[in-house]
Amino acid sequence: MSELNDFGGGQDPAGGVLVVTTNDVPGHRVVRVIGEVFGLTVRSRHIGSQIGAGLKSLMGGELKGLTKTLVETRNQAMERLVEQTKARGGNAVLMMRFDVTEAADVGTEVCAYGTAAVIEPIG
To answer: What does the similarity note say (predicted)?
Structure first.
């Protein structure tokens, strides 16, 4: 189970905010659109992982240290997205996306963004 959490991620079900990549949520209606929200983080590269990645790239294969770092980074960006949504009174993020870019050759910038909204079950 540990490897599942190390190399994958997603939303914490206890977070109180539903995050979806779709425009709507089946069985729910959008009561109010709050607007764009995002969670941003920039992570520098660890010198040990850079050396390990350099050696691994000579032999081929997955760079597990870098994969774990990127998963942690995406999860942190997602947590910040959820915090922003809650702070604005939302209980859902629609059309969530990630944007990943290099940040001035010193790290990786990860931004989770979407549309904050208030949704409620139909019926």
So the answer is: Belongs to the UPF0145 family.
Strands of the sheet containing 92-103, edge to edge, are 18-19, 92-103, 107-121, 28-44
- As a whole number of angstroms, the distance between CA 80 and CA 60 comes to 34
Residue 66: predicted pLDDT: 76
Q: How many domains does the chain have?
A: 1
Expressed as residue numbers, the domain containing 25 is: 2-6+17-121
- How many other C-beta atoms are found inside a 10 Å radius of the C-beta of residue 40? 15
Query: In this model, does residue 46 exceed pLDDT 90?
Result: no
- What pLDDT, in 10s, does the model give residues 53-99? 555 566 677 777 777 888 888 999 999 999 999 999 999 999 999 99
Instruction: Decide if 116 is inside a domain.
Output: yes
Is residue 115 a contact partner of residue 88, using CB atoms and an 8 Å limit?
no
Does residue 12 lie within any of the structural domains?
no
What CATH number corresponds to the domain at position 94? 3.30.110.70
